[in-house]
Design brief:
Blueprint (H helix, E strand, L loop, with lengths): L12 H4 L13 H14 L7 E4 L2 H11 L6 E4 L32 H15 L2
Parallel strand pairs: 1-2
Helix pairs in contact: 2-3
Length: about 130
């Protein structure tokens, strides 16, 4: 049996500014570092066999903090990236004046996101 813990990266400077990061690396804020440290302390005595992390810097930085008590190798994969916001990447959320059903083709669709999640699950079970 596989037991999976899913965590989100700590708050980034971009999150705090309301910017859609998409596949941009992101930069942990002081609060984001504190969030990661708090979760690290909470999970310090939990056994993990592996840590799989998005290849985006904000996720890697969070995972490195979480991994401090464990000393495991981080397995990075693009499959865990945030949704690709295409032409909206880097924009403020409040500046986007379009309904989700009208997103341009450059924005990763829910179906594409679902397909990527399925590929990730196959990756875990190989």
């Amino acid at each position: 049996m596989i037991e999976i813990y899913l965590t989100r990266h700590g708050e980034t400077l971009e999150n705090a500014q309301g910017i859609l990061q998409g596949h941009q690396p992101g930069h942990l804020s002081h609060l984001g570092i504190e969030q990661a440290e708090s979760l690290r302390d909470e999970l310090a005595d939990t056994h993990f066999d592996n840590i799989v992390v998005s290849d985006l810097q904000r996720a890697i930085d969070t995972a490195r903090i979480l991994n401090e008590p464990h000393g495991l190798r981080l397995t990075q994969t693009h499959l865990l990236r945030e949704r690709d916001w295409g032409v909206f990447t880097g924009q403020h959320i409040t500046d986007i004046r379009i309904l989700p059903k009208d997103f341009p083709p450059s924005v990763e669709s829910p179906l594409q996101l679902q397909q990527r999640a399925r590929i990730f699950l196959r990756f875990l079970f190989k």
